[in-house]
Amino acid sequence: MELRIVRRLIPEWGTTYGPPGEGPFPAVMVLHGSEGAWSGWSHRNAAILAAHGFLAFPFGYSSGGNAWNAGHIVDCPLDRTAQALAALREFPFVGPRVGLYGVSRGAEHALLLASLMAKEAMAGLPEAIAAHSPPDVVCGGFDARSFRDAGDPGWQSWDGGKRAWTWKGSAEGLLPTTPIEVERYPGPLFLSHGLKDRLWSVDMTRRLEKRLLAHERQPDVHYYEGEDHLPGSEGENRHHELLIDFFERHLG
């Protein structure tokens, strides 16, 4: 029996999921959210993409943690993600077009990385980016050990005293509330958000859309009626239909 989804290792970087055969395949780097690299959600999302013809690379960027603890997103070096993206491009099974897909903090990560790479005119920009439940500004550092439910008194979704991201060893320009300069990225963008998101307001995506339109950009934007930060079964099925169609059009 031939497997329909095959794991392949990028030495020193991590595993990928893709179709059987020699390729080359259109590729997507998958960026997890605050659930962390150990939770497995990014691997599950990568397997869904792999089932539809993409070579998907779930890149774990959170620090610490284990199967029971998500770890943290503090002083995460975005330039290391740029290096991982370059390693994905050099992988023998990967074709000439590579995309980025991030959810929540992963969406923030994807948009920030693209804006910084574009700002510095770096080679290897992703050919397409999808961001689900993204913020429109840089958010603070996150440590799962201090996370509490939104109903707890004094709750906050991140520890504002810490920085989430660095770029080439510095957090300058990446302080919380700094607008993400998504308009710098010249490629196709997919933005989606649940209208009933209780964690990050859908107004964040609306502001991203408004800013892109003001710069004469035409992003693919989808608002999901009745869906929370992460969509339920029916909503997720529709999200994946739209997401896969987007990547097929721009990477396929």
UniProtKB/TrEMBL annotation:
Top-rank lineage group of the source organism: Bacteria
Entry's Gene Ontology molecular function annotations: fatty acyl-CoA hydrolase activity
Entries under InterPro entries matching the protein: AB_hydrolase_fold (IPR029058)
Gene3D superfamilies per record: alpha/beta hydrolase
Any one GO biological process: fatty acid metabolic process
Xref: SUPFAM superfamilies: alpha/beta-Hydrolases (SSF53474)
Designated name of the protein: Thioesterase
